[in-house]
Write a structure and sequence with these properties.
Blueprint lengths: L7 E5 H5 L13 E6 L4 H12 L5 E4 L4 H6 L7 E6 L2 E6 L1 H12 L2
Parallel strand pairs: 2-3
Antiparallel strand pairs: 1-5, 2-4, 4-5
Length: about 110
């Protein structure tokens, strides 16, 4: 998994409708998925921030959970997926995840 990719992307139901593979649509359940690898130091930074702010999330090992990694088009670690009723939002790299978590914890 490479480290370079646009930092932040949102995917809405409308945008997803244009995708050829409907399996890329997010589940209708809300939640956070943190994609990373076992040896990724930046993944540990992202986990620490999520834990500090008491944000419930599921850690997904991108190398082991290939189907989910492909479903959300994960190209770098760490990547946080925020799933909501309208689709999902993708936040890429530890610094962007930290900023995102700070922003949501204010709400």
């Amino acid at each position: 998994i490479c480290q370079s990719q646009p930092q932040h992307q949102s995917y809405t139901s409308e945008a997803q409708a244009h995708e050829k593979d409907s399996s890329k649509k997010a589940n209708s359940t809300k939640g956070y998925l943190l994609f990373g690898t076992k040896k990724c130091p930046n993944c540990e930074i992202a986990k620490k921030k999520l834990n500090e702010k008491h944000v419930a999330y599921e850690f997904i090992d991108a190398e082991e959970m290939v189907d989910l990694t492909q479903k959300y088009d994960i190209m770098s670690a760490p990547t946080l997926i925020s799933v909501n009723e309208d689709g999902y939002e993708k936040v890429v790299n530890a610094s962007n995840i930290i900023n995102f978590v700070d922003r949501i914890s204010l709400n």
